[in-house]
Model the fold of this input.
Amino acid sequence: MAHGDPLIEVRDLVKHFPITKGLIRAKQVGAVQAVDGVSFDIREGETLGLVGESGCGKSTTARLLTRLLDPTSGTIEFRGKDIASLSRKELKPFRRDMQMIFQDPYSSLNPRKTVGSIISEPFIIHEPSVGEKDRKCRVQELMEQVGLNPEHYNRLPHEFSGGQRQRIGVARAIALKPKLIVADEPVSALDVSIQAQILNLLRDLQRELGLTIVFIAHDLSVVRHMCDRIAVMYLGRVVELAGADELYNHPRHPYTGALLSAVPVPDPRLAKAKVRQVLTGDVPSPTNPPSACRFHTRCPKVVMGKCDVDDPALDPKEGGNLAACHFPLSDREVATQVPTAAA
Amino acid sequence: MSTISTELVEPESGLPAGEPGPVGIAARSPLQLFWRRLRKDWLALTALGIVLLIILTAIFAPVIVDLAGTAAPRTQNADLTGDFGEPLGPNAQASSPSADGTVAQAGPFGSDKLGRDVFSRTVYGSRISLLVAFIATAITVLVGVTLGLLAGYYRGWIDTLLTRVMDLMLAFPVLVLAIGIGVACSGAEGCLGGAIQPGLTVVIFVISLSTWPYMARIVRGQVLSLREKEFVEASRSLGASDRRIIFKEILPNLVAPIIVYSTVLIPQNILFEAALAFLGIGIDPSDPSWGAMISDAASIFREAWWYMTFPGIALLVTVLAFNLVGDGLQDALNPRTAK
Done:
């Protein structure tokens, strides 16, 4: 797939959730640094994966991109226009072009509204001039497009299975033919057999509509199946950004290496040949993250005096990966540790 | 395919044999499901029947009194009291003939100290009870839901302010407040610039004032959890306005708890009205109110048991019926809550 110019440029995006204390006059005593200085581009037509452990800031990044949350600082340029500080009113025209698919199909659909009225909502908000008959027609076309029976227009969400519900969510997201879809773990609440159907639906729709997708997941095999490029996040930062093949074949950041090392290997002989890189301890608290390189407290390659003092930048490393590390993994280390590495 | 809440429907019986009926699976709307569950709850249905009967009684009170042939509720008849002014029992005859030579007979429920007919007064009493209960509940729902939605949705200082006001209201000694307002507003010109006139409006005002915080708290709590749901986020990411989110996304999800709580409020408010009338607040003494009748009867209960018993039974049956209907609605609307 050939990918064009950047659709979205994110620069130094920061989101801190304040922790306040006090009953009458709330004083800020700290902040959860959910996203702390994230920069990346999303190119037109590509699928960008965001992966990382729970609490690393993936979902917050997604909600900042769609401006469901207001960034603390930083810029989000959508086709050259900064949308990070637009007001709700100014933002409305941009909403057409950016839609979101949510993680939990059981809570992302209003249980009191029929499928028809859920999928018509984008039209009612953005194209109020469209008549009811036309609208119903378009909604039923959309339902067909995502593989739902258009006759189920008047049914309620609870009458559908998880996979069908997620299709309803997809139909709502593509209704206005957006440029960008932010999918926040769209399949993690579904059965494995259903996951593949939804993933294939997203790929088909991407081809048909020329969508750009930001795909958030923690399932590494799903991400590899879906994405052109992948950004790995750790404690609110992007630690590695590379093409899918580059990332899986030769990860450069030790954290990426550890993540991939945890992927189960179906071949027992191959599994035996690898030395798994197991991380110890928990992810540090985002209210009080480690200094400099945030991974240094758990990193197997840490060099004290360097990693805890000097914050590494996201620079190109061997093989073309961008990684924020002073001591990136060598090809030899990759070959012994990472099961997904090219043999 | 869809599994939840689809039930097999028998093919329509009118179809000619051999021809296949319509598709055997039909989806049911929540209303249909609600009705199916309610239909199986005979206790709630009986109670609903009684409630309807009471409402009809209130509406057709003059007709009923006419048919029974009893005197109007405010008519005082000195012939219907004994020689020492004691009331006559049910169907009792006066001890001495009236001025026109006939012997007066008390109604089926007897008469009171002033010779008024207890049956008529009990029938008419349903009007005041229901009127006050329905209007006060409607005001409570309106105020409680509006303020609860505002507090829960916008949070911040609006929430802080409203929650503090609610706490304050809940901490008030309601009866003392009621007596105070009742006395303050009993003048001919009323109070609050004439908005609250003495009589029923005082009672309705006092009841609404002291019950809205309960409703507002329930709504606020629900809204706090609903506003974090992903479907609200989805609506926001589509660019929906606050008004649209509140009315189209959040409010429809509040209908069930609001209905359930309202049905609990109605009997509470009936009792509240009776208690206020018992204390002599608001209602004109000549108005037939169950609470006022019971209060009146308390001093002569040993001599005239009927005067307290009949309005008491009316009050008991009404409150019980409304409570049972409320329970039935709750079960039918929230089938997951165990009995």
